[in-house]
Specification:
The complex is a heterotrimer of chains A (179), B (466) and C (394). Helices cover 46% and strands 12% of the residues of chain A. By secondary structure, chain A is α+β, with helices and mostly antiparallel strands. Chain A has two domains: 6-53 and 130-177, Alpha-Beta Plaits (2-Layer Sandwich), CATH 3.30.70; 56-121, no CATH class. With 466 residues, chain B is mainly alpha-helical. Chain B has 17 helices and no strands. Chain B has helices at residues 19-31, 36-62, 77-88, 90-101, 111-132, 158-191, 195-204, 212-245, 257-283, 292-322, 326-337, 341-353, 361-364, 367-394, 409-432, 438-444, 454-457. With 394 residues, chain C is mostly helical. In chain C, 48% of the residues are buried. Classes of the chains: A alpha+beta (179), B mainly alpha (466), C mainly alpha (394). Chains in contact: A-B, A-C, B-C. Chain A binds chain C through residues 43, 57, 61, 89, 96-97, 99, and chain C through 262, 265-266, 269-270, 272, 308-310, 392.
Chain lengths: 179, 466, 394
Amino acid sequence: MAIEKPYGILARFQDPGTLLKAAESIRDAGYKNFDCHSPFPIHGMDQAMGLKRSPLGWIVGATAFCGGSAALGLQWWTHAIEYPIVISGKPFFSFQAFVLVTFAMAVLGGAVAATFGMLFLNRLPRYHNHLFFSKQFETTSDDCFFISIDANDKNFKDHQSKEFLESIGGYDVELIVES
Amino acid sequence: MSSSTEHIEEPLIKGNPSFGKITSVISRISEKKAPRMWYVAISITSSLAALMFVSIGYLVWEGVGIWGLNNPVGWGWAIINFVFWVGIGHAGTLISAILFLLRQKWRTSINRFAEAMTLFAVMCALVFPGIHVGRIWIAYYMFPLPNQMDMWPNFRSPLLWDVFAVGTYFTVSLMFWYVGLIPDLATLRDRATTKLRKFVLGILAVGWHGGNRQWKHYELAYLILAGISTPLVLSVHSVVSTDFAVSIVPGWHTTIFPPYFVAGAIFSGFAMVMTLSIIVRKLFALEDYITLRHLERINKIMLLTGMMVGYAYSIEFFIAWYSGNIYEAFTFINRATGPYAWGYWIMITCNVVVPQMFWFKKLRNSIPVMFVISILINVGMWFERFVIVVSSLANDFLPAAWDYYSPTFWDISTFVGSFGLFLTLFLLFIRFAPIIAMSEVKGVLPEADPHHHAQDHDHKEPNDGH
Amino acid sequence: MKLDASTYRLSEAGRPGQIGLILGLLGLIAGGAGYWVDSEQFFFSYLTAFFYWFTFAIGGLFFVLLHHLVAATWSVVIRRLAESVMATVPFMALLFIPILFGVHDLYHWSHAEAVADDVLLQGKAPYLNFGFFALRAALYFGIWTLLSYLLRKISFKQDKGEVQDFPHKTAFISAPGMIAFALTLTFASFDWLMTLDPHWYSTIFGVYIFSGCVVSIFAFMILTFRFLGKNKILTETITIEHYHDMGKMLFAFMVFWAYMAFSQYFIIWYGNVPEETIWFIHRWEGSWKTISLLLVFGNFGIPFFILITRVAKRAGLMMVIMPIWLLIMHWIDIFWIVTPTLHKHGYHISWMDPALTIGIGGIFFYLVWSRFIARPIIPVGDPKLKASINSLSH
């Protein structure tokens, strides 16, 4: 046992089914700051962990709207205000012809927001994470399933949490310390 | 006749691999030494790419006069190649986005490299309008940059819409591809043995730890990217079609062009996916991952989109007659019987006649047959653009202004070279990145379903039966 | 209304059909009287009403063809309703007959004197003449009736467990069926709507009409299942996930409609060739402008922002309002295509328009309903039924 305060605790689970069930137990035990790690997303896990739906959709919608408006505004300004010039007999503000660029910029705005919004909500990118101190955790991106409880959680107690994780089917329980 | 035995739930991945097996089979491709064939292949393709760069260098030095363009035909191979490559680029996003929204799980085996293929095809496509502008050093005029001349791009020009549409398409496809790669890069990072590999992959994987709190945002981001890529992919080739359709050149000005171009793009893109999948699965022994069942589905999509293209050909022909417009009618008769009739009949044969072989289950399941057909389809699709671009321009309203167009050496060398660029990038990709989306393939295995073991865990949640 | 839990058949459910039949007969009698008031107006109103309901029937056929072609799972549970809708195709053929009598009132190309001094119409005469027009209509209805008959027959056989290799057999019908469907619907929309202005042409027109057909069938199915749900029928079977899925299809095809409409408008607007722009100029004249703008915002702009949200597709009320709204817009779309030929300088809704729309609609609903309650209301013999009921939306 390390002397310094651990970052958290990690336990391994057999398969997606047990992971899901364990998540429900941890949620019901009142833990908030925990996470379930798996090589692929598991259906129903959000519910099991008691997580709210991601707000990403609204971020994307707002950004896409801004992107489209900016593009339409730019086209209007350059063609109707800044340098009006008759081209192929069309009106200065020929919105029909401006639809396509407006659409493209709305999509671009939305996609940028989706990508970077996702990273932002996940507090990424980062190079290191205290979970990476654990050697066995490397297998979570391969074929293993883990639950980690953060030391910040108010229910967190080294031994109690360890026993609790073992009682709900966790094994290879490990306190995460700097290595 | 598209038969399916879905209700028996034939497994998507053969050989019943475990999660770990998938990781090791796919990861090892990029971890072990490349096979000798790879070095042989990349030296050939990079030589071809060099040929393209030489051709471009000469073009910049000398000007577009080195091409076969003449007075009525001011758009030649460059625009044909542009449309050809953009079209090929459509399959990747279609597979990742539309098939994802339609919950076609079989896409997981092919989406990764189809997306990569999209990126490389769009890169090749962007080369051609870029070098076609004549004075490449002022290509930045295409962007709305404030300048002391008070000049702005003409937003009423379809060519400018292309800049925005294709530029957006490339950027969005890149982000979509990268987002898909993150969990797999994390897998590679965790398997890395050398310090350098660990460091580079550690940066590329952006600190992914596979926690459900990450997956939650990640899955929604993926869904949203799929959702907005779907109209985007349809819009891109629609915009490309407006390069032609908003003019009043006979044979170009027709309202069906946007969806017709999109169908053609999907058609050619899937053909390219097919060609490459057959090579990749053979080269890396991935027959269990890219199964005959996957290939058969691609064949069905090719049959379907081939029919759509055939539908557009017929409706155009009918309306050309029905319109009573003599120029329209002439253009279509001229395509079939005039100086470029050979191109027209290559197009009809490859795009409409040949895919009909996929009606037969036996042919749909024969690797050599589909390999040859997939190549023929891309030949046909190149000729479709050739017929549209050249025949309409060479013989339009005034017979006195007609001329015959033929390419020069430099036209051909640039086009052949673009295949070199495409294949070089593709070879680099299959060497260094996970060519199959591991996390997604794992996710469609039956064991990935938390209720798979329900009988031994008596897990209760009736609403969630999946 | 009651559902037998073992046979999945409705009993004591005749009433909605009877109401439909009564409304239909009243509407047809009232509207039919219009023939003696103003025969030209009568035929234009009749064409609008007929074509409107025809798009439902043909949309049902398309849904079933597509369902079999892609071997879909989630939509198994709603398939039987679409099959009942497509069963109205042969009756649509009967309802088409009055249009044959109205050819002279509806179609300028049928006037011999007009053709005599019009070079373009002379060129089109081999296609645009009464005999060939009627023959083509017979051919279209023949093909649709055959397809709908075959697909219904095999589906009922499946109920009794008498079909081996169902996916293969249905695909065998629907693959060539889809090709025939695409061509016949295209030419039917050319014949019946595009030739109202015999000089105008647009290659995308068939696909444009098709997009409306698919919107109408999904809207109709959502509303019908909501109606059943209100009567406590199938509430456990057609879940929120199915509404979400149907809502997505409704949204997708509404956007597809906008894509087709914009492509057609935009290419014609930009090219600015008089023989093509005239069609849109007519629809921008006087008060028609209002209708054109209503379509832009009502059939795309506003519903787009509502239906794009997940909330709307899963909300009870929105999934009633939006389908109704889109069905009204779809009617306006057909009205906007047909009627400017008659009322050139501004829109005019005659009393015959609602009367005949309700008339044909009532009969249509009666036919759909009576076919629907005559059989199990879900395909009980389909092995994918269970998976379909449990299917989960994104």
